[in-house]
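Standup notes
- DV: blocked on the single-chain target, sequence here:
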Amino acid sequence: MDLNETHLSVLDYSIVICLLVLSISIGIYYAYKQRKNNTVQKYLLADRKMNFLAIGMSAFSTTTSPVAFVGVPVEIYLYGTQLAFLVVPDRKSVV
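- DV (later): unblocked, structure below
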């Protein structure tokens, strides 16, 4: 296989299409199931019933980019754990 010529096969396209259809159908299902119970407080504040762990994980994932999420373990693997001392204090200062 030539590395300069990469393309998706029919199987790859079918998997992407199936995942998109599944995601859209889940969204449509819950939109119709819960459309009569929606208020602004339920939508924006989750009816004030969210667990603190879910809120913390959401805040952490919002401040972490996908590049950093994948790149930091690679950097630590390649160059050692000294990078962890730069990353860990940064996470505490954001939250």
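- Follow-up: The longest helix spans residues 10-33.
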